[in-house]
């Protein structure tokens, strides 16, 4: 059996003393966490270990002794060896290192027998070696014992292991609720949960001195401590503001159906509710439960701060050099230009577009109908032109809440300014859909079939002569009017798709800012060991007469895995159909809504 000892690099040059750590359950492995220096009182060591065990919840114990000989400590090895009777353990590790050597030597005591039986066995083995009478079976047995007592040292960086989070295998091979924790996971958990053990440094006046990653002084930041102290009143203030906002939203007038319907269709209202939920998560007084909850709160906080910073930069650009006035003066001529292009397009459709011969009467009716709507829209734009600059000036203030608010407001303004294009698309789609379904129904009439509404299927049916005659007339009329309707539907659908594409880019930008895990990606870039996918080993030392020494290095998570694991759930935009379903809807004339629905939440 091979005994693996996880040994921290910070203890390689520690003074002689006792090894404090934990035996990993179910495996022939031990994790060394700290070294208690000589001199010490065994009773104080036991009391200290019991105290640390109660604070950390880790089954700490004295694993053995550590010896690094110095001048005046010739008998230290025998003294530390005798301590195995004071600290009874199933196994007692006696690790020693000589000056000038890289490798350690390890002797395992009390592994299978008591100390007296072990000493008696050693004496018997010495007598057998002096007699030099050994059989082949005995030689093979001793070789097996030597192999059984083989020790491998796995060196690790204690600080990185304590701060890292080991992730599960992503392919679903392991289930943390059913499978027992692996040896590596228990090792990481032992180091992470033993933080109270690392608070004792050389500046403490206690009777015990230890060596670990913080033995030269605790790692801390004044800025972090000040932020922790100031976060409590700030969270209370945010909670108070959110309670006022919740009370305003619960007013009865905002619960009416028209108000709720309109608020669910405006991107600004959806983003406002989304940020409100984020602020509730950040300002919660309850501590984060688990690593994922902590990372979610950190990602939301960093995303919110970056969003506000980008919004302030946008607002500073808008209110500098009179950019708002320039935008207001450009908006009305741009709307007139779009209306003029639509009029030219309708005039082209009312003639012979691309040499196609259209139904003259229907073509003129549809063209004049749409031209009337364009004239109404131009009148509305000119009526609102004196107030556009004020609307832009006050709307630009929303950027102080974040860039996502400004983008959401831009999406709503685009939706309002292109409302006439949406109306054209709806009119054309409804008329085209009516003719498509009418033709399909009349086509079933020719084949002697009908649609059974109750059973949702096509059944056979017998029609009389009058029904077939009327059906033939209607089918002929709809078939010859279909090209004219289909052309108008095609043109306005393409215009509508351009607007939807522009709004879709805005919505994707907003969702990207809301959901992208900036904090997790920052950890992956600057501290990749914090997000561990696994470990790798390399040979550190393999000197003759010493045990095998391996160096454990942390493999960081891949960037795509970091984004998929820590991405904040967000409200996606409609439609969520596949490309095939989208093409089918466009072909039959069903409406495509790009609105965002709060009920659709995706990870």
From TrEMBL:
Pfam families, per the entry: Gpi1 (PF05024)
Transmembrane segments: 237-257, 300-319, 365-384, 391-418, 424-446, 467-491, 497-521
GO MF assignments: glycosyltransferase activity
Residue ranges of the region described as Disordered: 113-148
Source organism per UniProt: Betta splendens
GO biological processes: GPI anchor biosynthetic process
Composition bias type Acidic residues, residue spans: 132-148
GO CC annotation, single: membrane
Keywords in alphabetical order: Glycosyltransferase, Membrane, Transferase, Transmembrane, Transmembrane helix
Name this protein carries in UniProt: Phosphatidylinositol N-acetylglucosaminyltransferase subunit Q
Organism phylogeny: Eukaryota, Metazoa, Chordata, Craniata, Vertebrata
Origin superkingdom: Eukaryota
Family matches, as InterPro entries: PigQ/GPI1
